[in-house]
């Protein structure tokens, strides 16, 4: 029922972790006597794992800095809009559970490096394998951990703890991740995993060189240097042979090109709005005040660095760069930004209360010292030495108490401390208000229901998608095959129960390009392609009444995707110079005669929803279409939703009878 007529092997084209988590939770709850449906599990799974993500982030921050920072990080992660965007109820997607796995893997890795324990490294590998089974973003952590080890090597902080932790993690994670069908041998053959393999080899070389240096301490220094260079050169030569034999050198160069030039992606990947580069507005809406506070925490980590804080610095910098390259990866930036912001906020609170805290601690220490001196005096029947010690301790205590009181009075007094705390509370209140607004307005609206604000301020809710999908379910045959752009494939299959040609899995770029070519061809050419595929119905999304995210807006990407596979589709035939693909009077003939244009604007000239504007006025693009499109020859209108957002056409095996002559040699051109 998907990717007709090719079909799709579900086990090898989807990450199973999300589904396994949901079904496992239902089984456990049923065993405990809690009756709950699988649909409710799927609805409430994202916020439940969001809570776990906040707790694990707090543990990671506690391990890095302390309990105050850990508690602060937990609160910030729970509120951050960048985290809420993927964890609202009903947001049943891979990131909903994968982000918790990402943070858990980071926490366990930090514990492994700090302790050098194989136990923690084994748990880290198990957490990583769960992340592999749930989300393709596991590539981030499998490159982040080797980068952390490499930074430790460069900074000469390599130790046996790092060696034990990484070797245990890499070997176990490599073997276990290969058991996920979607990954398989990619773990040893794909370029995304070469960094981890290279660091594994580099660690063995570094350890061998360290052993050679210890054995040759008394030898001639030049001979030692020559032996070290020889071993290193041999290791690099063997590693290069392995890469060439595996055939990963060429893909690696392409990956580097994509890494340093984020705009270089395939047309299908680049066509997704979430895959576009982020701008400053996106950073502000998802992070707010953490944009200003997190860099301070990064500076604190660099100023008081250790092996674990090196990981946090690497994590924050790489996540920021990836979030800049792709909007979708903003979700990976939110937790490290919250952690760094929590570190800076905890330092601020420590500084505010530092004077009184130090004064209390010093007085307590002096009291303990006095008690010890007194006990010692009683035990020795008033020996002269301990009497002198007791008198000296009392004098030190009195002097320390007076100095601390003078420092407190001369430094920030109660007024300054109150002002700082008031400003701190106001900033946090503004942040909480912003997070609540974003959660309510931006991340709580279902995508299948369109909400539009008119010029007079009234809100209009357009439920055209569910209306069209219900029409498909009740008015078409069960084996009907529907062709639409891949954005709507999952919705058609899930809500209508009908067979789709392409869907959101996007595993086959050629098949998507075939759909794009069909929509960009003339009706006569497109009809032949539709019959060759076996399509019964064509669904297009049209925004002439104010819906901006329609198929006309996606037409430039359709042209690029089709041109990347089929040479007969030329971008210059569709792109107006300096404007791209435009549907108005300046549109090129190839686009005006395309099937997408014909189906979108069919009978639109008859419509005049706004009396203050002329008929056939496109409200989404703010132009008057003018001349109406001609009559369809090979397709006929079957359904149009209330607000004209979803339009469905039936594919006829023969031409429509009427005034227009329909044959293969002619097409209805403008």
Automatic annotation (TrEMBL):
Keywords, in A-Z order: Glycosyltransferase, Magnesium, Manganese, Membrane, Metal-binding, Transferase, Transmembrane, Transmembrane helix
Reaction(s) catalysed (UniProt annotation): a di-trans,poly-cis-dolichyl diphosphooligosaccharide + L-asparaginyl-[protein] = N(4)-(oligosaccharide-(1->4)-N-acetyl-beta-D-glucosaminyl-(1->4)-N-acetyl-beta-D-glucosaminyl)-L-asparaginyl-[protein] + a di-trans,poly-cis-dolichyl diphosphate + H(+)
Membrane topology classification: Multi-pass membrane protein
Residue ranges of domain Oligosaccharyl transferase STT3 N-terminal in the record: 2-341
GO molecular function: dolichyl-diphosphooligosaccharide-protein glycotransferase activity; metal ion binding
UniProt-listed InterPro entries: Oligo_trans_STT3, STT3-PglB_core, STT3_N
Keyword Magnesium: yes
Identification of the protein by name: dolichyl-diphosphooligosaccharide--protein glycotransferase
Species for this entry: Eptatretus burgeri
């Amino acid at each position: 029922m998907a990717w007709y007529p090719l079909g799709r092997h579900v086990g090898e084209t989807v990450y199973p972790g999300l589904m396994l988590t949901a079904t496992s939770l239902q089984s456990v709850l049923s065993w405990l006597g809690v009756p709950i449906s699988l649909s409710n599990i799927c609805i409430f799974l994202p916020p439940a794992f969001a809570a776990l993500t906040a707790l694990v982030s707090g543990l990671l921050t506690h391990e890095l800095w302390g309990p105050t920072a850990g508690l602060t990080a937990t609160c910030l992660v729970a509120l951050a809009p960048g985290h809420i965007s993927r964890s609202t109820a009903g947001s049943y997607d891979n990131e909903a559970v994968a982000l918790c796995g990402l943070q858990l893997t980071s926490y366990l890795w930090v514990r492994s490096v700090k302790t050098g324990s194989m136990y923690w490294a084994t748990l880290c590998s198990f957490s990583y394998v769960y992340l592999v089974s749930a989300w393709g973003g596991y590539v981030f952590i499998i490159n982040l951990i080797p980068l952390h080890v490499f930074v430790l090597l460069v900074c000469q902080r390599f130790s046996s703890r790092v060696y034990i932790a990484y070797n245990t993690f890499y070997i176990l994670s490599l073997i276990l991740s290969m058991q996920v069908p979607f990954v398989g041998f990619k773990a040893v053959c794909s370029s995304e995993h070469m960094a981890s393999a290279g660091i594994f080899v580099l660690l063995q070389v570094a350890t061998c060189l360290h052993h050679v240096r210890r054995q040759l301490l008394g030898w001639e220094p030049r001979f030692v240097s020559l032996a070290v260079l020889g071993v290193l050169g041999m290791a690099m030569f063997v590693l290069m042979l392995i890469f060439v034999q595996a055939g990963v050198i060429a893909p690696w160069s392409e990956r580097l090109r994509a890494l340093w030039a984020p705009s270089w992606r395939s047309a299908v990947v680049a066509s997704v709005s979430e895959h576009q580069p982020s701008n400053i507005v996106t950073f502000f809406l998802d992070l707010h005040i953490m944009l200003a506070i997190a860099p301070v925490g990064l500076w604190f980590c660099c100023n008081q660095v250790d092996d674990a804080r090196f990981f946090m610095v690497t994590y924050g910098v790489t996540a920021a760069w990836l979030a800049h390259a792709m909007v979708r990866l903003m979700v990976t930036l939110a937790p490290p930004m919250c952690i760094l912001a929590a570190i800076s906020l905890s330092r601020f609170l420590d500084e505010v209360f530092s004077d009184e805290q130090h004064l209390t601690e010093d007085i307590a220490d002096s009291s303990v010292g006095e008690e010890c001196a007194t006990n010692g005096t009683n035990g020795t029947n008033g020996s002269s030495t301990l009497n002198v010690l007791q008198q000296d301790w009392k004098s030190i205590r009195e002097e320390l108490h007076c100095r601390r009181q003078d420092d407190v009075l001369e430094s920030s007094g109660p007024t300054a401390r109150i002002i700082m705390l008031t400003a701190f509370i106001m900033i946090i209140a503004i942040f909480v208000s912003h997070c609540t607004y974003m959660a309510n307005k931006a991340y709580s609206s279902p995508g299948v229901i369109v909400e539009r604000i008119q010029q007079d301020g009234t809100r209009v809710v357009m439920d055209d998608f569910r209306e069209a999908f219900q029409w498909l379910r009740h008015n078409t045959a069960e084996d009907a095959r529907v062709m639409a752009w891949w954005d709507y494939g999952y919705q058609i299959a899930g809500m209508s129960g009908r067979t789709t040609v392409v869907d959101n899995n996007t595993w086959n770029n050629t098949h998507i390009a075939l759909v794009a070519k069909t929509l960009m061809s003339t009706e006569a050419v497109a009809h032949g392609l539709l019959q060759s595929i076996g399509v019964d119905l064509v669904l297009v999304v049209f925004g002439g009444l104010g819906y901006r995210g329609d198929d006309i807006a996606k037409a430039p990407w359709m042209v690029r995707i089709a041109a990347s596979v089929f040479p007969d589709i030329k971008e210059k035939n569709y792109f107006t110079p300096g404007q791209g693909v435009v549907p108005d009077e300046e549109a090129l003939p190839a686009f005006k005669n395309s099937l997408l244009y014909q189906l979108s604007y069919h009978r639109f000239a008859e419509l005049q929803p706004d009396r203050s504007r002329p008929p056939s006025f496109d409200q989404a693009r703010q132009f008057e279409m003018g001349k109406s499109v001609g009559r369809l020859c090979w397709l006929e209108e079957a359904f149009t939703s209330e607000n004209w957002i979803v339009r469905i056409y039936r594919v006829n095996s023969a031409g429509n009878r009427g005034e227009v002559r329909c044959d293969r040699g002619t097409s209805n051109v403008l």
